[in-house]
Amino acid sequence: MIANPIPWPDGARCAVAMTWDMDADSAFNWYNQETADNLVATQQWVRYDPLIAIPRLVEQFARLELRQTFFVPGWVIEKYPAQIDLLLKNGHEIGLHGYLHERSNEIDKDDEHYWLGRALDAYRKHVGARPRGWRAPSFAFSKYSLRYLIDAGFEYDSSLMGDDIPYALRDGNDSLLEFPIDWTLDDFPHYAHNRDLGYRMPISSPQRAMEVFRGEFDAAWNSAHSGFRSGTRPVGASRPIQGGPRTSRLHAHEGRRLVRPARPGVRSTAKADGRGALDAALRNCADIPEPAPGILQGTLTRQFRHQSGGKEAANGAPLHTRRIYGSP
Q: What tens digit of pLDDT does each residue of 208-262 get?
């Protein structure tokens, strides 16, 4: 089934990554700058993410001896430093996820570069190093993102959906490793429901969500049985506020631990990536084609506004005077 399977170390059939987007109240403040302070119920809902979910997940992963990757906006790093310290103390990776969860393909080229710089500054000041990984907020990877990420020294991205296995994004002689994601491995379609934010997803049972996730894993495992000596690498994306720590969902997620003891040929990516199995030079992919004019920007007429200098988000870090785009 997989024409060019990855030779995972130690004869492993496949590798699995569970990744988390710790958005907290970043996107909430970006998209509701005039009303965020009055949307109290939703304000509490999004803060469940860092205040309740993260400590609960860290405790669970410590019991299971798992290390995970958490993609975090720079603004969230500034606002919730204790949660970042807790993740780092327990050996989890912190990837970058924008600054205020801005969608890169909805702002102009200069603004994208500016907010990336803000996010990098926040990361370096607290973590003390540069991030290895990036996930574009809302997977909104623009036609400028690849070059910006390469220039900033990122090693990998996990925003795109172009293959079942890791592959390289190339810009000239430079490349960035892509760990592809897919909506079938995301908990957002199962659990996101909030009237203030316009989410109207029908809420799934945890068992239904796990049925979808497990189906994807079984496909990765079975591709190895189909004559390939190694399988695919499913990358799951969850939001702590939704898929992880709510009591019934927590029990469902704990069920994922059965994958490893039941199937010894599975490797977590923390182990699988240790010997260069994901060398970008070997996972070649054609350059990203230039999109048709107006596909990513300008197709819809957007009204933009200017933020007033020094304005603050509701109960959060200061917003900065930059042009942003509102909804079409």
A: 888 888 888 888 777 753 222 223 334 555 555 554 555 444 544 554 443 433 4
Domain that holds residue 274: 9-325
Indicate whether 205 belongs to any domain.
yes
What single-letter amino acid sits at 135?
Answer: R
- Examine residue 4 and state whether it is found in any structural domain, yes or no: no
The number of folded domains in the chain is: 1
Q: How far apart are CA 50 and CA 40, in angstroms?
A: 17
Please provide residue 71's backbone torsions phi and psi, each rounded to the nearest 5 degrees: -90, 125
How many other C-beta atoms lie within 10 A of the C-beta of residue 171? Answer: 14
CA distance linking residue 172 with residue 147, whole number of Å: 10
The answer to the question of residue 2 being in a domain is no
CATH number of the domain encompassing residue 183: 3.20.20.370
What the block records as the tokens of 322 is 């930059």
Report which listed range, 5-9, 43-47, 139-143, 299-303, is most confident: 139-143
Contact 238, 187 (CB under 8 A): yes
- Which residues lie below 8 Å from residue 14, measured CB to CB, with a gap of 6+? 8, 220, 221, 223, 224, 230, 231, 232, 233, 234, 265, 266, 267
* 176 lies in some domain: yes
Helix (H, G, I), strand (E, B) or coil at 146: helix
d(CA 143, CA 296): 8
How many residues are there in the chain?
Answer: 328
Helix (H, G, I), strand (E, B) or coil at 171: strand
Residue 319's pLDDT is 39
